[in-house]
Amino acid sequence: MSVNQIRFNLNSVLEEIGATRNRVAVESKTRPATILDLASGETRTVKLETMVEILNAINRIAKENGSTRQYGIEALIEYIPEDNE
Question: How far is CA 56 from CA 25, 53, 62, 82, in A?
């Protein structure tokens, strides 16, 4: 497996919900550096507990901003098959 086959879409989700990386870090009680790494695609590992906290924060913020969409793990992490690289 190549790490190039995994794409993190946190930046586009943040744009959709109208939130900053800092707000998600504060709301999810996650280190800002972790959020930055996810947003830039530089992360190599992430704890599932951290992803759950980030998703909970994203969904709270989205709801506050009038969105009815529920964001799941597939909104943040995208798998790119080998033949699509």
Answer: 11, 5, 10, 31
DSSP 24-58: HHHHHT--HHHHHHHHHT--S---HHHHHHHHHHH
**Model pTM score:** 0.88
- Return per-residue pLDDT of the chain as tens, 85 residues: 466 788 999 999 999 999 999 999 999 999 999 999 999 988 888 899 999 999 999 999 999 999 999 999 999 999 999 875 5
